[in-house]
Amino acid sequence: MALSRGLRCCQRIFSWIPVVIISAVVLWSYYAYVFELCFFTLHNTLEKAAYLLVFHVCFVMFCWTYWKAIFTPAATPSKKFHLSYTDKERYEMEERPDVQKQILLDIANKLPIFTRAQSGGRQTSLNSTRFCDHCQLIKPDRCHHCSVCETCVLKMDHHCPWVNNCVGFSNYKFFLLFLSYSMLYCVVIASTVFQYFLKFWVGELPNSHAKFHVLFLLFVAVMFFVSLMFLLGYHCWLVAKNRSTLEAFSAPVFHNGPDRNGFNVGLRKNLLQVFGEDKKLWFFPIFTSQGDGHYFPLRTLSECQNPLLASERRWREDGSDEDGTDGEVENDASVRLDIE
């Protein structure tokens, strides 16, 4: 027991190493750019002021978004999705797998859940409830269990070691902004440093301790820019299709079968789900995503095709939940099924 606790403690410590590496590189880049380039290399006061202003705006936005991506807790399912004491006892006392599956299915029919488990054959899959044995809950749509965080995460995208956090419903916008401002940070550094890199290279500037910092600064900025360009491009494509990284590799299963585009409701609505209605706040790490992460609009299912819609309405009409909030969905779009 003590050994297991010690291993978990070591794992938590080592999980911060990627964050420490990124932080160290950024702090060095700040010193190299502000002091070695702007203070020790530049002589034009106007140029120096312009460089420092643009750099610090990008630096502040990068740090802000990185902080929010790291320290925003991953959103977990509400108590409505956890098994009650009675249901849990009934489920654990039952030894027949088919009966256990039916117990979970009966509970799921009372919740706004539209996806099914992916294990087993097609018929088995379409009739299986997504249940987490570790957390003892019925998984909401797009929710997955993270083995690193040891909890179920709403609209889980992936566990990112570079932010030491699960990227999901609560911080996906922050993660996208972190990638965007990281790339902008690299672009600003590379574009302003390049001319002085050439001057050091051809000998127009005297050799000094600033030369190493300027040369290495350009190399690091370009290297990170190329990596971020592909990663950000991939996540922009995911947002446009309204998919998570997990859903891109394994299509969610609905009542009528697997469908990679099941949550794709059009480019505009897909963007609004992540960034919100207020476009002035799109570029700031302030939570504006629509809904509460438990249910999402579907693309092609109609009321007559979806037997769970009536169950969802019953769930909404059950009064207040255990948290004291109204069971009604905050955004009508999250329960309206659009027909294309």
Determine the structural class based on helices, strands and strand pairing.
Answer: mainly alpha
Please state the CA-atom Rg, rounded to the nearest Å.
Answer: 25 Å
Q: Helix count?
A: 11
How many strands? 9
Biased composition (Acidic residues): 319-331
Enzyme class: transferase
Catalytic activity: L-cysteinyl-[protein] + hexadecanoyl-CoA = S-hexadecanoyl-L-cysteinyl-[protein] + CoA
Subcellular location: Membrane
Q: How would you characterize this protein structure?
A:
The chain starts with a helix and ends in a 24-residue tail after the last helix. It has eleven helices and nine strands. Among the domains are: about 5-75 and about 165-240, no CATH class; about 80-140, no CATH class. The chain is mostly helical and about 350 residues long. It is elongated, with a radius of gyration of 25 Å. Keywords: Acyltransferase, Membrane, Transferase, Transmembrane, Transmembrane helix. InterPro entries: Palmitoyltrfase_DHHC, PFA4/ZDH16/20/ERF2-like. Its main location: membrane. This is Palmitoyltransferase.
Give the secondary structure arrangement, pairings included.
Blueprint: H1 2-15, H2 17-39, H3 45-71, H4 85-93, H5 97-108, E1 115-116, H6 122-126, E2 131-132, E3 137-138, E4 144-146, E5 151-153, E6 158-160, E7 165-167, H7 172-202, H8 209-241, H9 245-249, E8 253-254, E9 257-258, H10 267-275, H11 308-316
